[in-house]
Structures are given as C-alpha cells and as structure tokens.
Specification:
The protein has 108 residues and is mainly alpha-helical. Helix content is 78%, strand content 4%.
Length: 108
C-alpha cells in the first residue's frame, strides 16, 4: 500500500503550517512568562527558576530584614493607637484616677 504523492503534496503545507504555528506559540508563551515573572517549566512540568546570582539573593535578604523591621514598627504603632483610642473614649474621672495611681507608684 503506497501513499499517493498527490495526497502528500496536499497535506504537506497544512502540516508545515501547523508545526510553524505551534513553535511560534511556544516562543510567544515563553516570552510572556519571562516578561511577567512566571517561572519557566521543564519537560516534566516542574518550574525552573533562573539563577539570579548573589545579588538577587542579597536583595531578597535585605528586603526580608526591612519587612521584619516594618512589621515590628507597625505592631508597636498599633499598640500605641489602642492606648490613644482608650484614652480618648474613657471617662475623664477614670483617666485621672489612673494617672494619679501611676504618679503615686513612681513616688514610692
């Protein structure tokens, strides 16, 4: 059973077009992933993370430290805000009594 050359000539342009289109789609997809920061994948679907070098790791470390410092500062500011809200909403006589008790503790 031989394949008719006319059929091959009719199917070849469609096959070549499909291969070129799929390769172009792969290139565009890879470019969009790199452009938008998505990890590339290997043939098994596992993400490949490009090696950013020591500079990228140092930057991540510095940003992590800064993030921890900002979180600590935010926590202390929340505590101070809670105290200020309590002072603003408490009754004046209760606030005066607390201030007097603190003053007597410091004297003793």
């Amino acid at each position: 059973m031989a394949i008719n050359p006319d059929i091959i000539e009719a199917i070849a342009p469609v096959g070549i077009t499909a291969v070129i289109a799929s390769m172009g789609a792969w290139v565009i997809t890879t470019w969009l992933k790199v452009k938008n920061g998505y990890p590339l994948e290997n043939s098994w679907g596992k993400p490949l993370y490009p090696n950013g070098g020591g500079e990228a790791m140092e930057r991540i470390r510095l940003l992590s430290q800064e993030n921890a410092q900002l979180r600590a500062e935010l926590g202390s500011l929340k505590d101070r805000m809670a105290v200020l809200e309590r002072i603003a909403t408490d009754q004046p006589s209760r606030l005066a009594a607390e201030i007097d008790s603190l003053a007597t503790k410091q004297l003793n």
